[in-house]
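Reminder: ligand-aware prediction takes two inputs, not one.
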Amino acid sequence: MDVQLHRLLPLLLLLSWPFFRRGDHSAARDAADLHPIVILPGHSCSQLDARLTEEYEPAAPPSCGARKGKGWFRLWENRTALQDPALLPCYAEQLRLVYDPVAGDYRNVRGVDVRVVSFGTTGGFIPRCPSYRKLVEALEGVGYKDGGNLFGAPYDFRYGPAPRGQPAQHFAHFVSSLRLLVERASARNGNKPVILVSHSQGGINAMAFLDQSPLPWRRRYVKHFVMVSTGAGGIVTALRALASSVSHPPPPGDVLSLFGNTGRSFESTFLTLPSPKVFAHTPLVITRARNYSAYDIPELLAAAGFSDDEVARYRTRTLPGVLNFSAPIVPVTCINGVGVPTPELVYWDDIDAEPRVVYGDGDGNVNLASVLALDTVIGKYLGQDYYKSVLIPNATHTGILADDFARQRVVSEILQANTAVY
Ligand SMILES: *[C@@H]1O[C@H](CO)[C@@H](O)[C@H](O)[C@H]1NC(C)=O
Ligand SMILES: *[C@@H]1O[C@H](CO)[C@@H](O)[C@H](O)[C@H]1NC(C)=O
Ligand SMILES: *[C@@H]1O[C@H](CO)[C@@H](O)[C@H](O)[C@H]1NC(C)=O
Ligand SMILES: *[C@@H]1O[C@H](CO)[C@@H](O)[C@H](O)[C@H]1NC(C)=O
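Here is what comes back for the chain with 2-acetamido-2-deoxy-beta-D-glucopyranose:
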């Protein structure tokens, strides 16, 4: 009897599955059946706290040191400081990154300690980027529970991964924290492997995280990777922002824009520049004097006022990682919006004028070319057994989580990842 039942059980489950699935997604499932999820949010969504130590010597007004030794305060995002002309220069300085040539690595400004808020929870990024609240609520609607089988991995978005062999103390710390989080999430959920869900820059970090985690570990702990709104080769929008920052230099203390004063110091600023592997020799920026393709980004950065050292770091630190964007080996579903006007070509006729933009297809941010390249870079990679690309017409870069029609699709793909047998 027993033996027969054992034999029949998989069959019964298989047969009953379609009926199971027919129910609408709002029907809460038995949480015990679900694989735990860890979410990696996009650029600038994670909140950061800072504290000033005795080592801090303000370059801006001495009053910037007022909080020295007085404990943690909100650094990102601190609306009060952003709106107070007296605090803004302090804020812009304390948020900067510095490159330390001796260590060969980026670090915080001396005397400024920075940590992410609420690592392990979604509370560390929901306040800054409310579209994740909608995603979390939708996941709760299908049986997930924030803190039980649903977790968040905020990160200090100013930093980026570095190629192997180069020091990246900060990213290494993130990798070990995330590994622990994934292991704990699994342990608390019947040892089931975890589904990683990323959005935008979170996808680049998740890829680097997986690349730096041994294959047996990946196979044991990662059931599936659902990468939302990330292409295989950067975005032309980053070049437009670069050109704009030259034509109309952001005011000193500008901390919000990608290539604003403070943004320029971030290691992550170069991360989304178009990849030569994807855009090849297509002209992306056209000026009177010459055309720039993805191969010419070093020259473009120099024309935009980056120092020789900064351009060298793009070449030696960012570019190898961009070129190495590859298959994570664990099962992947990529989900991207398409059919939304997306900057594809930048005319930068006159250094002093705002660049003109020609639009193509994409999600408003990520170009279709970058999305389609996933099929080759991940899909055709030998050893990448499961790869699925989902294109959602009319979904924008963040609308993909915020708009009902797109989010429902994202959630249904996450549910499919839960039950997929590879
Ligand atoms: C915002 O920053 C200022 C100083 O830069 C600090 O005094 C204040 O406490 C911060 N706000 C929060 C909520 O931490
Ligand atoms: C690129 O990826 C391969 C395979 O994951 C790895 O062996 C190599 O070290 C990586 N190169 C860099 C520069 O990170
Ligand atoms: C720049 O690119 C445009 C558009 O592809 C092309 O028409 C033009 O000939 C190119 N200019 C140069 C100097 O290569
Ligand atoms: C996308 O939006 C446009 C304009 O609102 C609409 O005409 C089109 O039918 C939509 N396409 C899809 C597939 O929803």
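The two ends are 30 Å apart (CA to CA). Residues 1-28 have pLDDT under 50 and may be disordered. We will return to this case in the review session.
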